[in-house]
Design a protein that fits this description.
By secondary structure, this protein is an alpha/beta fold. The protein is about 25% helix and about 20% strand. It has seven helices and nine strands. Helix 4 packs parallel to helix 6. The protein binds iron/sulfur cluster (SF4).
């Protein structure tokens, strides 16, 4: 991906892995899949293989070449903790983030159990670095809320939640150890609606817990 991102809370994307598979309802309208599949079969295009998972080792060193400090979203077109990404490759990605300490990296996953297991073992060297923010996606109670618990039990210095697309009222949940929360609705064709009461509930809990709350967008409905 280019070194400029349209994601509002970050200013570059870095994709040392491309492609993914769906794992929960938040994936239903995955923008990365829609984008990647558009180029399936186009000879020479980076997404010639569509959304099939692909390691891109030639991208590994990219952040080391960006001299100006950036907020870097890691794997906007994949999920670093997908089970087809070998542990050794995830360690290589984390090593670059540790070395490129002038950037801030945001790593977001739906594979939160693997994130926890690796941060508490092979990724321990990166878990405590304050220039790497480890986050989980939370879209609903059934799939999303358990991911928060997994993140909280990972020995990460900085943890965040991306509550997007918010698909239902999450009810009360534990925010201990969480450094910031992003909330957003779904946009694009077939976007599922987000109720403002669901957002207010999260905002109130963030206020009570003194956790910074960033509201991204209402999505395609409002
Ligand atoms: S985990 Fe993320 S990248 Fe993978 S299919 Fe789901 S939304 Fe898309």
């Amino acid at each position: 991906m280019a070194a400029t991102s349209s994601i509002e809370w970050t200013d570059a994307t870095w994709n040392p892995v491309r492609g993914c598979t769906k794992i929960s309802p938040g994936c239903k309208h995955c923008y990365a899949e829609t984008f990647a599949e558009r180029f399936r079969g186009v000879p020479g295009h980076p997404y010639e293989q569509g959304f099939d998972l692909l390691l891109v080792p030639e991208k590994l060193a990219e952040p080391l070449r960006w001299s100006r400090s950036k907020m870097v979203f890691v794997n906007s077109m994949s999920d670093l903790f997908h089970d087809q990404v070998p542990d050794e490759y995830i360690v290589a990605v984390a090593s670059v983030m540790v070395r490129a300490s002038w950037h801030t990296f945001q790593v977001l996953t739906k594979r939160s159990e693997r994130l926890r297991d690796l941060l508490n073992s092979k990724l321990a060297f990166a878990a405590g670095k304050t220039n790497i923010w480890w986050g989980v996606s939370v879209e609903d109670r059934k799939y999303g809320l358990p991911r928060i618990g997994h993140l909280q039990s990972a020995r990460a210095a900085i943890r965040f939640l991306s509550i997007e697309p918010l698909l239902e009222d999450l009810g009360p949940f534990d925010l201990s150890g969480i450094r910031w929360v992003i909330v957003g609705g779904e946009s694009g064709p077939g976007a599922r609606p987000m109720d403002k009461r669901w957002v207010r509930s999260i905002r109130s809990q963030c206020r009570a817990g003194k956790v910074p709350f960033f509201f991204k967008q209402w999505g395609g409905v409002r």
